[in-house]
Amino acid sequence: MTKTKSTVKFTLTFLFAVALFVGPASPISSLVLGQDLPPFQGSPRILGAAWSVAECCGWRAAWTRRGTSTIFDARYSNPNGQTLGGIINAGITGNTVRVERRNYDGGPLECLYNGRVDGNGRIKGTYKCDKAAGPEYEWSAQINY
Asked: Element (H or E) spanning 140, and its range?
């Protein structure tokens, strides 16, 4: 194989691997659920570096922030050993928290979270997935600064 073909093959393989990891859609456009996040106010520090999240049915997640953006990478697991990943877009105004999630490797495609944060970075609220008329579930998180 010539050097050019080898370089092209490596580049295409790398891009395919990135697409599998990140998902098929852009993190920003895929998170639009029909409602905007609250405007970001205050220091970027308010969102912290990572969130430890607990959801319905034993699901736990680690949300890791991308730099000083409002975007987080999420890794979920449950007691049965299932795992999934996603991209989070978070906003906090005052003590109101609003989060949008887009999964990229299984599970509900879109979820919308609402909650309240206290002075210690603890969040409690409810979330709903897939724009369904189904139930809302409780969630909680701890912002790690």
From this structure: strand 137-144
